[in-house]
Design goal:
This protein is of the alpha/beta class. The chain contains seven helices and eight strands, in the order αβββαβαβαβαβαβα. Strands 1-2-4-3-5-6-7-8 form an eight-stranded mixed sheet, sandwiched between helices. Helix 2 crosses helix 7. It is globular.
């Protein structure tokens, strides 16, 4: 789908619901996707969250899911992160039984100081919830969000147990910055926007045992929903092993 049409569809999908009030525990108890807000320093941060169904035997993992880019010639669509949540992150990671939370960038890049501090404030609130396992927080994202996942993992390594960047630009300093944090990259060889081979070369040159690179085939950059299947088939088993190794 052309990028402009994709963003238009995303805006329409994201504008159909109003945000409910925030509960005292921030995360609702009712299963399903919810639109929420958190007042942070100078920003009313919008975010969407999927609450998993079923009883939990203890605190659940938390996934911070960072959305892809948008048409910057248009106003930023409210609850844009919900589109990424519902099309990619939630269906792909559902078998993990985690809370999946997708904040809005509010038209900023994920490394913008204001959105960065707001997302960190959101994480602080979420991990204070006894239903959330603060030792099992994962960051993922696609395209702009893939670069954002690298950035947050490198700059705030101690907050995460693993990172899953997808189809995102990366920098050598981020590879070094994540230290020993387990990272699993998904990137399609057919990606016409973010070069697969350049990303693979950077990772291969770093030669770090804690970084796994899975090459996908046949998926263009603007077919992000097709990443849900490899998330379920490749990343969920990897995350289960990674989380079990931390017990």
């Amino acid at each position: 789908m052309p990028w402009q049409l994709f963003c238009t569809a995303a805006a329409l999908a994201a504008s159909s619901l109003a945000a409910p009030p925030v509960s005292a525990d921030l995360l609702p108890t009712e299963p399903g996707v919810h639109r929420l807000q958190l007042e942070t320093d100078g920003l009313e941060l919008r975010f969407s969250a999927e609450i998993p169904a079923g009883e939990a035997s203890g605190p659940r993992p938390l996934v911070l899911a960072l959305h892809y880019g948008f048409d910057r010639s248009r106003p930023f669509p409210p609850y844009y992160g919900q589109v990424f949540l519902e099309r990619v992150a939630a269906p792909g990671l559902r078998e993990l039984g985690a809370y999946v939370v997708a904040p809005d960038s509010h038209g900023m890049g994920w490394n913008d100081p204001q959105i960065e501090s707001s997302v960190l404030a959101l994480l602080d609130r979420l991990v204070a919830d006894p239903r959330v396992d603060s030792d099992r927080v994962i960051v993922t994202g696609y395209s702009m969000g893939g670069a954002g996942a690298w950035y947050f993992a490198a700059e705030h390594t101690d907050r995460f147990v693993a990172a899953v960047p997808m189809a995102g630009r990366l920098r050598g300093e981020w590879i070094q910055g994540v230290g020993s944090l387990p990272v699993h990259i998904l990137h399609s060889r057919r990606d016409e926007l973010i070069d697969h081979d350049a990303a693979r070369a950077l990772v291969d040159a770093a030669d770090k045992e804690t970084i796994t690179f899975t090459t996908l085939s046949g998926i263009t950059h603007f077919e992000s929903p097709r990443y849900a299947e490899p998330l379920a088939e490749v990343i969920v088993p990897w995350l289960r092993r990674t989380l079990a190794s931390k017990d």
